[in-house]
Amino acid sequence: MPIDETLATTTPARPKTFDWRPDDVLLYHLALGAGSAPTDPAELAYATETDLRVLPSFAVVARSLRDAEPPDLDWPGIEAELSQYLHGSQRIDLHAPIPPRADGALADTRVAAVHDKGKAALVSLETTVRSAAGAPLWTETSRLFIRGEGGFGGERGPSRDIAVPGRAPDAVTTVATLPQQALWYRLLGDRNPLHSDPVVAAAAGFPRPILHGLCTYGIALKAALRILLDDDTAAVRSYDAKFTGVVFPGETLRLTGWHEDDHVVLTATVADRDDAPALLAELGVGAAA
After folding, report:
1. Model's pTM, two decimal places?
2. What does the alpha-carbon distance between residue 105 and residue 132 come to, in Å, rounded to a whole number?
3. Where is the Peroxisomal multifunctional enzyme type 2-like N-terminal domain (predicted)?
4. How far apart are CA 274 and CA 158, in angstroms?
5. What does the angle CA 206 – CA 187 – CA 229 come to, to the nearest 5 degrees?
6. Beta-strand (E) ranges in 81-149?
7. What residue ranges of the chain are covered by domains with CATH 3.10.129.10?
């Protein structure tokens, strides 16, 4: 059935109430590889309860921590198989630092836009999250391509490019992912078998399961905080990233960053494969509004 853009974008938001605890934050950090230097105080701030820092990217898993099934992406006006979806980009806008504990947080998710990219449709899912008291916490935007569902007659929509500065980077580091990293990360609620089942991965054209894009997203943010922002998680106002290639668990990422006044530009490439691109991102940084 062709996509019905009007029906999808006018369907009421789906509400969800959820909680999280310091243990959930720690599990997220450990799934990204935190604690790899277990005597480093800066690393322990992500890996133990003492003075626990919360990575802003925890926002992308906070709602799914208790999910044990593959994500349900069906919406009125949009019918597609999970295998047709490709995560194109992810953005979070922080309205306040994420606390290590919350009870009764409230999320509303809606289809904010649907664009016709020709061979694929691009669906933007927007989630606004607030505390039980109603204070805004963050806004999350997931942009998902649906392969084979373009050509429905919608607008093509805007394209946003992240410009890499034409100068030497301010910092470069490498992060080795673990062979079992995707098996850890799936426990945060993303049970898509593409990341765990070799048969499913082969059917999708990959030699083995691939790492979750959102795992690369979190690894890259943690690295940027370390090499450019002195691990000041509260300095991050926004984090917008395009997924530009796949990462296989066990590969080494090379993170390259430029600090440009009120933002940071970050690239992630796969060092093992001649620096094949994996992610291109921009962080908005500065004092809280």
Report:
1. 0.95
2. 5
3. 18-148
4. 31
5. 90
6. 85-94, 102-116, 120-130, 136-147
7. 5-147, 171-285
Burial of 162 from C-beta contacts in 10 A (0-12 / 13-18 / 19+): middle
- CB-neighbour burial class of residue 244 (10 A; exposed 0-12, middle 13-18, buried 19+): middle
Q: What is the DSSP letter of 95?
A: S
β-partners of residue 263 are: 260, 284
Predicted confidence (pLDDT) per residue in 175-232, tens digit: 999 999 999 999 999 888 999 999 999 998 999 999 999 999 999 999 999 999 999 9
DSSP class of 233: G
Q: Are the beta carbons of 128 and 105 closer than 8 angstroms?
A: no
**Which positions are catalytic?**
190, 195
Q: Which of 260, 263, 268 is nearest to 170 (CA)?
A: 260
CA 103 distance to own-chain centroid: 23
Instruction: Share the mean pLDDT of the chain.
Output: 95
Domain 5-147 adopts which CATH fold? Thiol Ester Dehydrase; Chain A (3.10.129)
Burial of residue 52 (CB within 10 Å: 0-12, 13-18, 19+) is middle
Q: Which two tokens stand for residue 84?
A: 């047709």
Residue type, 280: L
